[in-house]
Amino acid sequence: MAKGLTAGELRTSDQDELVTKLKEAKEELFNLRFQAATGQLESHGRLRAVRREIARIYTVMRERELGIVTVEKEPSDG
């Protein structure tokens, strides 16, 4: 999973990419929680960062659902 996803990067992604990123983030969060429970977690800050990435993804998805922000496509060459 890419580290440090910004809301701007997420807003330029399509719905399928958002779902994929959400799935990856949830898997990473599960693994981090498992490491924390077994005492193997080295970076506790990463737990917080992944939770925030998940929240950003959900926020962008909800904005689209409500029509607050539309998908901005990059201009194509040609």
UniProtKB/TrEMBL annotation:
The keyword Signal does not apply. Keywords: Ribonucleoprotein, Ribosomal protein. It comes from the Bacteria. The keyword Repressor does not apply. One of its GO terms (cellular component) is ribosome. CDD domains: Ribosomal_L29_HIP. It holds the Pfam family Ribosomal_L29. Belongs to the universal ribosomal protein uL29 family. This is Large ribosomal subunit protein uL29. The lineage of its organism: Bacteria, Bacillati, Actinomycetota, Actinomycetes, Streptosporangiales.
